[in-house]
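Please fill in the sequence for the structure shown.

STRUCTURE ENCODING:
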């Protein structure tokens, strides 16, 4: 008989081992992707924190992170939560004493509703505290004018000189305090108290509360209950249900809450329903796959199967099986057990021995595989930690600690596995562009959002500082024309930055790509210049501290599907207080866009960004590259200045500009570019002034375009206004001298 028991268990072990990988072993409590705790409180679904994490608004939980530890609250009844479960919710309730000298005819302590929840009559008790009083709890009918139906009450007597309710607050037995049960769950409550004493008491204050059954913390109540402004707190148990429909009605609705392997149970309240896991399952029945199979055979001492029969677990149940060489009467081993066959005994022993050896080998293989996985995981985690330190994780933490703002802390840290999946392991087909600092890939995150992921080419100390600096700078910026940083990854071999995806390539691509004709109209170019200047003006004048970009160029200006300009690549950017005039650094940037004054002195100022912006304006006007060996002057800046000086600007302009732009408009932008490119930084305007001028010029151009479009339909007054405006502009160009001692101003 001992042998048949061993054989039976071996068979069970083999089957369980083969099924182990496909069976869940732990039941979830919250919706996938949602927080399971707030502070020390577990949040069990259908309760949830955050949109999409609760079944409906009745189960929404807010988490107050300002307290330590964080404290959850039920939003619908604005009550702090101590515990949530599939049966009820434990809350912190509160009350204030009611103190009135004359209440011989009865005094209402309060009427209130906690719908859709209800106080559990099985888990709570009613407590009245006061001298010579009768305290009553009633069920208030709020749907009609029916009177309150009382469901419980008790009497508290005392007469202690000095106004004290009690001298010993360790119990509640009818002296100064009484307690009782009530007959049914209550959502709408009415509390009353009457004076039953012959003589008036020196302490008219009293309290009526509903608290959990084991509540005994009467020490918190003052011996005199003096003052109606003091608040007392105590735990209570609330029952809940899903909606207000019965199970039969709820099953027909799209918001039916019960998941698979569960059953519906009508609520005891008379409305709503609850879900329970089916027999043989346990877990959270409100989750889609929250009810998981109970392994009835896992207990080695179970008596489910008789006389050597092996217990075999199945989904939602189990069955008993006889091992090879044994059989059961009427094929019911769970009732009669197993007896040995008289034939083929030797073969059964051989089979049993083979099975035993196989089981041992499988166990050894499983243990070896598990150890290998553990070692690989440990090695992988060590490597991630090494990369984190090498990629500037400690430096970023130092920046966060020293920053007075909390914006950097909100930057999401992505796992390397998520970004590898988003880019198909950084497939070459996903490359959006390459630069001196790294490669940018197009990726799709798990939530379906499209992003741009910047991956450094190599890792050295200078690039790590630039990477951390770009994270720190972009985390403090919120501007529609500055690229938005979504997060970073520090646990990869090289640092990664995750940006919003801007879909229409770069300004450089649209201006200089030989394989395509530029689609940038004059109005679009003027709007792009206006948007870039507005972004730089924000960085210089409105960000605190101010931010110097240090690498403005057309390849760092992204365009979206509506040709909206977005400034990107903040790897060289630096913060500077408004009191400082410059930064002294190693000369870095892109040849052709470098401020000559910065190149000579090593001192970078906000006017150095102005110079680079002037180069971009020249690109927008001419459509030519900054450095080109086919020109007589390789530098676009020199080429542009010479054309302005020789009064032959219109010979070097892009054909699109000549076809669409008005002469005074083109001259306005060209002269603005000219003063941005002054060799002396002090002679250049600020980005704030440039942005204001471009905005005025753009609005005037758009107004003229609108007037031309509706010329045949517009009134005489509009035409007259347009003519007057144009005349004023032309007159101002005449007044401007060649060296531009002041900014071009558009009159309106």
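FILLED IN BY: designer on duty
SEQUENCE:
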């Amino acid at each position: 008989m001992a042998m048949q028991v061993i054989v039976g268990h071996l068979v069970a072990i083999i089957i369980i081992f083969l099924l182990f990988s496909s069976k869940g072993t732990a039941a979830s409590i919250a919706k996938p992707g949602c927080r399971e705790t707030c502070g020390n409180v577990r949040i069990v679904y259908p309760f949830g924190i955050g949109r999409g994490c609760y079944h409906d608004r009745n189960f929404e939980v807010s988490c107050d992170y300002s307290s330590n530890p964080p404290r959850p609250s039920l939003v619908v009844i604005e009550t702090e939560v101590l515990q949530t479960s599939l049966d009820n919710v434990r809350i912190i309730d509160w009350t204030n004493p009611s103190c009135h000298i004359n209440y011989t005819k009865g005094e209402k302590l309060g009427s209130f509703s906690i719908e859709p929840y209800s106080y559990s009559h099985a888990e709570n008790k009613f407590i009245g505290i006061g001298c010579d009083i009768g305290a009553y709890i009633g069920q208030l009918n709020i749907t009609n004018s029916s009177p309150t139906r009382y469901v419980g009450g008790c009497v508290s007597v005392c007469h202690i000189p000095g106004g004290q309710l009690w001298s010993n607050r360790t119990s509640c037995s009818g002296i100064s305090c009484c307690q009782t049960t009530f007959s049914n769950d209550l959502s709408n409550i009415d509390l009353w108290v009457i004076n039953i004493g012959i003589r008036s008491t020196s302490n008219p204050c009293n309290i009526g509360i509903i608290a959990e059954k084991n509540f005994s913390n009467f020490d918190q109540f003052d011996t005199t209950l003096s003052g109606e402004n003091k608040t007392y707190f105590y735990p209570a148990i609330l029952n809940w249900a899903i909606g207000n429909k019965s199970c039969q009605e709820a099953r027909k609705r799209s918001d039916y809450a019960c998941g698979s392997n569960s059953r519906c149970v009508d609520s005891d309240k008379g409305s709503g329903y609850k879900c329970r896991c089916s027999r043989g399952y346990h877990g959270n029945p409100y989750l889609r796959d929250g009810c998981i199979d109970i392994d009835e055979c896992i207990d080695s001492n179970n008596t489910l199967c008789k006389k050597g029969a092996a217990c075999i677990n199945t989904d939602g149940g189990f069955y008993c099986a006889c091992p090879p060489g044994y059989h059961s009467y009427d094929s019911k081993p769970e009732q009669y057990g197993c007896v040995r066959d008289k034939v083929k005994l030797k073969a059964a022993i051989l089979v049993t021995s083979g099975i035993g050896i196989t089981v041992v080998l499988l166990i050894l293989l499983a243990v070896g595989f598990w150890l290998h996985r553990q070692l690989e995981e440990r090695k992988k985690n060590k490597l991630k930690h090494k990369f984190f330190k090498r990629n500037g994780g400690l430096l970023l933490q130092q920046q966060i600690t020293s920053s007075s703002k909390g914006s950097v802390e909100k930057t999401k840290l992505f796992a390397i596995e998520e970004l590898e999946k988003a880019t198909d392991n950084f497939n070459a087909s996903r490359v959006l562009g390459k630069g001196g600092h790294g490669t940018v890939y197009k990726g799709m995150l798990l939530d379906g959002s499209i992003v741009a992921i910047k991956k450094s080419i190599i890792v050295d100390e200078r690039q790590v500082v630039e990477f951390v600096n770009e994270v720190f700078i972009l985390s403090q910026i919120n501007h529609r024309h500055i690229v938005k940083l979504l997060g970073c990854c520090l646990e990869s071999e090289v640092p990664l930055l995750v940006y919003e995806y801007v879909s229409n390539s770069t300004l450089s691509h649209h201006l200089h790509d030989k394989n395509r004709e530029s689609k940038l109209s004059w109005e679009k170019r003027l709007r792009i210049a206006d948007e870039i200047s507005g972004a730089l003006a924000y960085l210089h004048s409105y960000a605190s501290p101010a931010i110097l970009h240090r690498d403005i160029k057309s390849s760092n200006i992204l365009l979206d599907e509506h040709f909206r300009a977005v400034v990107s690549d903040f790897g060289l950017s630096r913060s500077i207080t408004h009191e400082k005039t410059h930064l002294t650094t190693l000369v870095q940037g892109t040849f052709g866009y470098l401020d000559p004054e910065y190149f000579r002195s090593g001192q970078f100022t906000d006017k150095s960004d102005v110079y680079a912006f002037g180069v971009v304006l020249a690109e927008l006007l001419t459509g030519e590259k900054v450095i080109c060996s086919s020109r007589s002057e390789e530098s676009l800046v020199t080429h542009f200045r010479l054309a302005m000086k020789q009064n032959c600007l219109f010979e070097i302009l892009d054909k699109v500009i000549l076809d669409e732009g008005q002469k005074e408009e083109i001259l306005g932008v060209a002269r603005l570019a000219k003063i941005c490119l002054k060799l002396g930084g002090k002679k250049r305007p600020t980005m704030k002034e440039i942005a204001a001028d471009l905005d005025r010029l753009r609005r005037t151009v758009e107004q003229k375009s609108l007037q031309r479009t509706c010329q045949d339909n517009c009134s005489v007054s509009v035409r007259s206004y347009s003519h007057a405006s144009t005349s004023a502009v032309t007159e101002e160009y005449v007044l401007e001298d060649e060296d531009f001692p002041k900014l071009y101003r558009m009159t309106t």
